[in-house]
From TrEMBL:
Residues 34-61 form a coiled coil. Keywords: Coiled coil. This is F-box domain-containing protein. InterPro entries: F-box-like_dom_sf, LRR_dom_sf.
Length: 599
């Protein structure tokens, strides 16, 4: 309130008699108002307590009333009035995005049938809801009661005329036991009235040739319209060989994939591509109709990074490509070149449709390991994934990387590079071969501190990817030295982040505003694998984020994970570390192909 005595308030001033009377007159009205307000509050408070007491006394009446209101509201609720076709679309969005649904009663679609009678009817009447099913052979073997329900036939019946995908495939490095996969295949026996429209079929065969042949002799696999190997557009077949040099011809002949005129995509996981079997596979494959051929071993995700059970000798890689010249996607593991054993025929071929090539090698040191590539032309190749299974710095050459990029780098728009140990200078050189690159995913097996703890001399200094790499990607005023990868829009970088946050900030801004930068970066994901060195730097690019840049960075967080706080991934055998478990990062991906933009 306004007061003429503001100047003496909160002071030690002694008022005169006149001032005292004036202050009394000034306070008379506001004090009266306060008394009136307090009186009204007390009155309302009394009324509220009386109403609460009355409600409590009538609870036996109010409770049924509320239940009646709730029941009537339920009748007119939007969920009750939604038509069945809307529910069908909602149910489809409940399915897992990546993996196939399983018979787990807590997951869709099974859980949707347990809500009410109407939902169960709608779910059973939605064929697309039942068009995919995964049955894990290892879950069968280890006695998982849910998996043993074998709902295969019911799912196929509910899928009706919708193309059906079924997986008896295990991603584990342990191949399924004989009893498990045999039970699953026998449980697939269908009545004469059921002829599924096969879309995809995946199976992990047991490591027994006799049992595989027994499975392939099942009656329904002799019928042209029901055998998934003869009708599916996409097949995933995993076979384990017990003995080196064991000939798979009898099994391949029984599979008889050439009878499948619809087959376009084949994933074939085999652990014994012996040099003696150079011509053992092609006679049994519908080579010219295949568009995708994946021969990579998924094992390095869970076992040794270095070892691949599915490595192709160079002449066999040449043979596969020569015979499958209509491929759009080809994925393989390559073994090291043996001069005394490996001879590449001189004839050249054109892979006119190949767009994606994924190669995993023991290391990227020798160009001879991929010498077969020079016998092919790849005019349409835009996506490349190169991975070294070795993390050792020995030799530290990168002949394979340079060899491949010189041949196809000019046309690449997407590159995933997981090189193990790679000198910084060689990485910079590699980036200069990529004028059309739009998407770059760089992965390293090393944390920043691995170089400090476990490497010496030049290996330490040359293996770090520092500001110099980002500088080469950053537009500069020097027109005589244009920056590398000028078309780059999507950058993902995992580990070996020995560069500074300031260098990253400069890269983002220069790519956004420099006259020599044709396009700005749209998406940048950095997994530093270390502690931050400049905690406030992200605020400096707030305007870029507001303008649309998808920027995501992750650091190690102190006291959250005591293992990773050490900032290193490699432990070498020493007395001090002999009892310490090695930390392996889950950074190895089977396929490097990604659509532009990761999320």
């Amino acid at each position: 309130m306004q007061s003429p005595f503001e100047s003496i308030l909160h002071t030690n001033h002694i008022p005169t008699e006149e001032q005292c009377k004036a202050i009394e007159d000034l306070l008379e009205l506001p004090e009266k108002q306060l008394v009136e307000v307090d009186s009204k509050i007390a009155e309302v408070d009394l009324q509220l307590r009386e109403l609460q007491n009355k409600r409590d006394s009538l609870e036996w009446v109010a409770s049924p009333l509320r239940r009646a209101v709730k029941a009537h509201r339920a009748i007119i609720s939007l969920a009750r009035r939604l038509p069945d076709d809307i529910y069908q679309e909602i149910f489809l969005h409940c399915l897992p995005m990546g993996p196939y649904p399983t018979p787990n009663p807590l997951d869709a679609p099974i859980v949707l049938t347990h809500v009410c009678r109407r939902w169960r009817h709608i779910a059973h009447s939605t064929p697309r809801l039942w068009s995919r099913l995964h049955m894990d052979p290892l879950a069968i073997y280890y006695g998982n009661s849910e998996a043993r329900s074998f709902p295969t036939r019911e799912w196929i019946e509910r899928a009706a005329a919708v193309p059906f995908s079924l997986s008896f495939y295990s991603t584990s490095t342990d191949f399924p036991r004989v009893s498990a996969i045999l039970e699953l295949c026998q449980g697939l026996t269908l009545s004469e009235s059921i002829a599924p429209h096969w879309n995809n079929f995946a199976i992990s065969f047991p490591s027994s040739e006799a049992i595989i042949l027994e499975i392939l002799a099942l009656p329904y696999l002799q019928e042209a319209t029901r055998n998934p190997f003869w009708n599916a557009r996409s097949l995933v077949i995993a076979m384990e060989c017990r003995h080196v040099g064991e000939d798979p011809s009898e099994i391949l002949a029984k599979l008889d994939l050439k009878r499948n005129a619809q087959l376009r995509e084949l994933t074939f996981v085999y652990n014994n591509y012996n040099r003696s079997l150079l011509h053992a596979f092609m006679p049994f494959l519908p080579c010219l109709q295949l568009e995708m051929l994946d021969l990579q071993d998924p094992g390095p995700n869970t076992t040794s990074r270095t070892f691949s059970r599915a490595s192709l000798p160079p002449p066999m890689a040449y043979e596969f490509l020569k015979c499958c010249r209509n491929l759009v996607v080809f994925k393989m593991d390559a073994c090291q070149f043996e001069p005394a054993l490996d001879e590449i025929p001189p004839k050249r071929y054109g892979m006119d449709r190949l767009k994606e090539l994924s190669i995993s090698l023991f290391d990227l040191a020798e160009e001879t390991d991929i010498a077969w590539a020079s016998n092919f032309d790849f005019p349409a190749l835009t996506c490349l994934h190169l991975r070294s299974r070795s993390m050792n710095a020995t030799g530290s050459r990168s002949g394979t990387l340079t060899y491949v990029l010189r041949q196809v780098g000019h046309s690449l728009t997407s590159l995933v590079l997981d090189p193990g140990y790679l000198k910084q200078g060689r990485l910079i050189t590699a980036l200069e071969f990529l004028p059309s690159l739009v998407q770059l995913h760089i992965k390293s097996a090393y944390f920043a501190n691995d170089f400090e703890e476990n490497m010496e001399g030049d290996y330490n200094k040359e293996g770090k990817w520092t500001d110099e790499v980002l500088k080469r990607l950053t537009p500069q005023d020097d027109q005589d030295h244009p920056h590398a990868c000028p078309r780059l829009q999507y950058l993902k970088w995992q580990y070996n982040t020995c560069f500074t946050e300031d260098a990253l900030l400069k890269l983002l801004y220069q790519r956004s505003s420099h006259p020599s930068s044709p396009v700005p970066l749209k998406q940048v994901h950095i997994d530093f694998g270390r502690l931050p060195t400049n905690s406030g730097w992200e605020g400096g690019c707030r305007d870029l984020v507001e303008a649309g840049l998808d920027l995501r960075v992750t650091y190690l967080v102190p006291k959250v994970d005591p293992i990773y706080i050490e900032e290193k991934n490699l432990f070498y055998s020493t007395e001090e570390l002999k009892d310490k478990a090695r930390v392996e990062l889950p950074i190895i991906e089977k396929s490097g192909y990604l659509d532009f933009g990761w999320e």
